[in-house]
Design goal:
Elements lengths: L2 H29 L3 H24 L6 H29 L3 H26 L9 E3 L6 E3 L17 E3 L1
Antiparallel strand pairs: 1-2, 1-3
Helix pairs in contact: 1-2, 3-4
Bound molecules: fe (ii) ion (2 copies).
Length: 164
Amino acid sequence: MSKTAENLKEALAGESQACSRYMAFSEKADKDGYPGVSKLFRAVAQAELVHARNHLKAMDAIQGTVDNIKLAIEGETHEFKKMYPAMIKDAVEEKEMDARHSFEYAMSIEMVHAKLLKKALDDPGANADAVYHICPECGHTVMGEAPKKCPYCGVDASKFIEVA
Ligand SMILES: [Fe+2]
Ligand SMILES: [Fe+2]
């Protein structure tokens, strides 16, 4: 791998992390009573996403949509079959309960993601008008109306985030 290819990989990881971190900081700033800071973190997070997207383009890592779906299914499947089970095992051994909990939520929901993506692969032209609901606690991802209570973490339907 060339130095630049390695640098792009590193930069992509950094920007992606910054985006997640700033979105979490934004939520916290809101809770702490700093709406201005919250907005700033959201704005910068969005810009980091632009940087990440540009790095992905420079890496030639964005294929056609069918191939992108296949790659996403592979990634999600690896996460729920191999990555998270191994991480959960380590967390149990090390009695890291917060990490265990976080890994367990993610593992369950990656399974949901793989299923949704497999359906999309069957008919990529379908569901243009679909509305999705995301659980803010565990990330459960539902096509259509939110369930009364999240089946994974119990959060109320009213808290779900809509993606339309
Ligand atoms: Fe996922
Ligand atoms: Fe949930």
